[in-house]
């Protein structure tokens, strides 16, 4: 019984730590003058969230708390909370994926540079990066995205929130690449 009590206490402590980390992230996304949120996040708010991510890395309990908060916000019809949490999670996923080295069988350097530019942007900046990309980069970019997805699926604990968030991020980015380049993105190199 004591063992079970310790496990419950440790789980509660981790959940509290995750909620505190998520609260700090959300707070960094708020306008400092009045505590409100504007989406898409302004450049200075994106920088503040990224700084908070550098200071306090996001743990699995924090990601779990984010999903719980999104579910609860949806149930309570707090429409602005879910997109805000998604924006913060996207910034986290982009930062995590940017820190992940390319696979040994990575595509050409131009495709990796384009992917790095996309990962450095918040979701609202993807269109601008893709608009400036040449169509000939599409197959390499698509392959780079596929390799990153393989890394997420094979390299992170199966079923973890970290895996889920990063996989969703890559699927969204892949969808944007396909909408920008059409069939050119799916053509083999």
Figure out the total of helices.
8
User: What structural category characterises the helix and strand content?
Assistant: mainly alpha
Could you give the count of β-strands? 0
Helix content: 55-70%
- The gross shape turns out to be globular
Largest sheet: none
Mean pLDDT: 87
Low-pLDDT runs:
none
User: Strand fraction band?
Assistant: under 5%
The termini sit apart by 60 Å
Task: Give your account of this protein's structure.
By secondary structure, this protein is an all-alpha fold. The protein folds into two domains: 1-92, no CATH class; 100-189, no CATH class. Helix content is 70%, strand content 0%. It has eight helices and no strands. It has helices at 2-29, 43-55, 60-75, 81-99, 109-119, 126-131, 138-155, 161-181. Helix 1 (2-29) packs antiparallel against helix 2 and helix 2 (43-55) packs across helix 4. The longest helix has 28 residues, at 2-29. It is globular. The termini are far apart. 30% of the residues are buried. The model has no long low-confidence stretch (mean pLDDT 87).
List the defining traits of the structure above.
189 residues, mainly alpha, 2 domains
Set down the secondary structure blueprint.
Layout: H1 2-29, H2 43-55, H3 60-75, H4 81-99, H5 109-119, H6 126-131, H7 138-155, H8 161-181
